Amino acid sequence: MNHNIAIDGPAGAGKSTIAKKIAEKLRVIYVDTGAMYRAMALFLLRQGIDPGESEKISEKCEEAEITIRYENGEQVVLLNGENVNALIRTEEVSNMASGSSANPQVRKKLVRLQQELAAREDVVMDGRDIGTCVLPDAAVKVYLTASVAVRAGRRYEELTAKGEVCSLSEIERDIEERDRRDMTREISPLRQAEDAVLIDSSDMSIGEVVDAVIGLCVWK
Ligand code: DC
Q1: Order of strands across the sheet with 66-71?
Q2: In this structure, are residues 200 and 145 in contact, taking their beta carbons and an 8 Å threshold?
């Protein structure tokens, strides 16, 4: 039986940081599902499609072949064979991904891929609908969140450390808008699965959150 770990939560809650550390400690594969939605968004942008053009998105998404490879333990996302890791973290791609991830065809295609990965080996997978839809039978489900102020503050620190000039209030507004879109979309909205454990990391260190999740993995 697979021992999969599902981590869902809003943008900026620290899901990928935590999931990577858990993957290292438990020696399982980390699957970043957001990166798959981002690769699809990049494909659609390259086709000249706008986030609101749902019919075109449904039609064109079938032409995108998204696969995952691991290099030195890092997930590499391939879009029709091209490594797009370095191209999917822009604002433009984030905005497109937020719109195109609400599309049923896009979700169907990527959920299938995610389920195939988790059926092959033990994974820690993060996203928005992992516990509710992709892996309903995951051994451990976590809903990781933090206050908007804390999430915006972390993002602000991250960007200023990279030398980028940004506004904290704009980041806060952006996070609120993304939360609203992710939580109110019709298909697989972001919500806590009934059997998920809620972890609010607002006042917790990374190590404390990692220990809390590992504490739930009773088979280890
Ligand atoms: O986690 P992220 O910011 O990299 O995700 C990018 C976008 O994809 C975001 O708008 C939410 C969406 N997403 C989703 O709908 N379902 C997932 N399982 C993962 C991400």
Answers
A1: 66-71, 74-79, 82-83
A2: yes
33 lines ligand 1 (CB under 6 A): yes
The CB of 97 under 6 Å from ligand 1? The reply is yes
Q: How far does the centroid of ligand 1 lie from the alpha carbon of residue 182, in Å?
A: 8
pLDDT in tens, 109-146: 999 999 999 999 999 999 999 999 999 999 999 999 99
For the chain of 220 residues, list the mean pLDDT of each consecutive stretch of 10: 92 94 95 97 97 94 94 92 96 89 96 96 96 97 97 92 92 92 91 97 97 91
The reply to whether ligand 1 has any atom less than 6 angstroms from the CB of 37 is yes
Report the separation in Å between the CA atom of 98 and the middle of ligand 1, taken as the mean of its atom positions. 7
Angle at CA of residue 48, ends 45 and 52, nearest 5°: 75
